[in-house]
Amino acid sequence: VARTASRPLAAGDISTLQSFIFLGGQLSLALCVLLCLNYYSIGLGAASLSLVITYPLMKRITYWPQLVLGLTFNWGALLGWSAVRGSCDWSVCLPLYVAGVMWTLVYDTIYAHQDKKDDIIIGVKSTALQFKEDTKQWLSGFSLAMLLSLCVAGMNCNQTFPYYSAVAAIGAHLAHQIYTLDIDKPEDCWKKFASNRTVGVLLFIGIVLGNL
Question: Where are the transmembrane segments (predicted)?
């Protein structure tokens, strides 16, 4: 698409072979990290490969590639816990994972609205094309599910007031983000997408202070 035409592979600055060599190097380093973990985590990490491999194909198959991205991208919610504890406490990890998936649906749907005109031309799919003018209602629903899941995860691992304060702040941030979003202005979509770094910072601070 026009927005990504200058990226190295699309612009022809690197060859397909060079990109595969680079990918092989990244995967090799990732494998070295994975093998340093406990056996449970090694198995859990290996289980994510099916999602990693299939995600790039999803926008050719379904209008919900953002969901598959969420399932893939938030695997760390499971792996991080198991790497420390030796296994997953599903009463905490599962709602945290769901929260991450819902968050990905929010920010990546906003991201996808940047490219919707080009996506229609080249025939790829996205939640932006699926939701159209109903996008804000869907984003509101995903945000609510995210906040509820974060609360459940917090309750199941005895989080304290700073954590829930952070969750409330995240809710306010997302509400403002969705309310002011203009899905027909790519520059505004990028601005709102990038502002999701604030969500991550707020949650991290809430977790740290909540545990302290």
Answer: 20-40, 61-83, 89-107, 138-155, 161-181, 193-210
